[in-house]
Amino acid sequence: MNSPTDEPSAEFSSTAESHRDDYLFGLTSDPAAISAARVTPPAIVIYRSFDDPRIEYPYPVISTKAEDLQEWIKDLSIPIIDEVSGENYAVYAQSRKPLAYLFVDPEEEKTQDYIEMVRPTAARYKNKVNFVWIDASKFSEHAKALNLQQVKWPSFVIQDLTTQLKYPYDQDLEVSETAIADHVTRYLDGKIDPQLKSQPIPENQDEPVQVVVGKNFEDIVFDDSKDVFIEFYATWCGHCKRLAPVWDQLATRFANVQDVVIAKMDAPENDLPPSVPFRIGGFPTLKFKPAGSRDFLEYEGDRSLEDLAEFVRANAKNSLESTLETEPEDQTPLAREHVEL
Predict the structure, then answer these.
(1) From the candidates 99, 118, 234, 240, which is the catalytic residue?
(2) How confident is the prediction for the chain on average, in pLDDT?
(3) Is residue 197 part of a domain?
(4) pTM for the complete prediction?
(5) How many structural domains compose the chain?
(6) Considering 145, 151, 188, 237, which one is annotated as catalytic?
(7) Is residue 204 part of a domain?
(8) Is 240 in the active site?
(9) What is the pLDDT of residues 34-53, one digit of tens each?
């Protein structure tokens, strides 16, 4: 800067204050330093230890408001392609850009060649997609979670971090630079459908709690004639196990009401379709969809039978008169004591 008070010094200083714990900032009006940096003030330059080591901000073509500077710095803090692990995953998650994974076996001789093969596509789409490579041996379970079912490397998949939808490249096809470029291009053009993980649709629904999987989610939950209360659970979740008998009792209580559905879905084993306006962040998650609506109400109250039943009564659009007239035989005070949490 010609002076510490010249524009865009104020916006730069504001950005520095916001990210003082993340990056090292400096400001100078010293003629010798400006000459050594080979810039014409006012100028803003990023120096980094990867990819292009020096990048100058396109001032005054682009605004230097603090939010624009912050977005520019955040984008350039992520390499064109880098290894992802638990240590740096948060950086990618916070960017909210789609994340393209190249799963490789680090022990394989051609691993670096595979990474370099993806680099041109990663550089081309840097502003739209973040690219990473990941140790397939160490994170094989994550590969399965991203719907890469074969133990075959290299493999490539794009994940939309906002919707959690996955777009894997066919593992039966050869992974090549052209194929990856085409896959990314078609993804960005909206020409690839997400691959949804789903357990098989149950052959029958004999139990009071209806089982929902990825393939029948829309048919059951988005049935406009039904009020639907659904639990998203994980088989390993202790809270879900404690809720299970209560959820069964809730379904039994409303079993004779034709237009009320009490359902459950094993969330880790089934993907939600793109039409669903939320993603699952913890277990159990309880959502209520009133009849005739596509909006979901989240249940956050006590997980006792009576509180859950009252929530249904308060939010159901269909008549519940037949249910409210009689109490199921097993709902003695002792039985309720056993099932309530």
Answers:
(1) 240
(2) 91
(3) no
(4) 0.73
(5) 3
(6) 237
(7) no
(8) yes
(9) 999 999 988 999 999 898 89
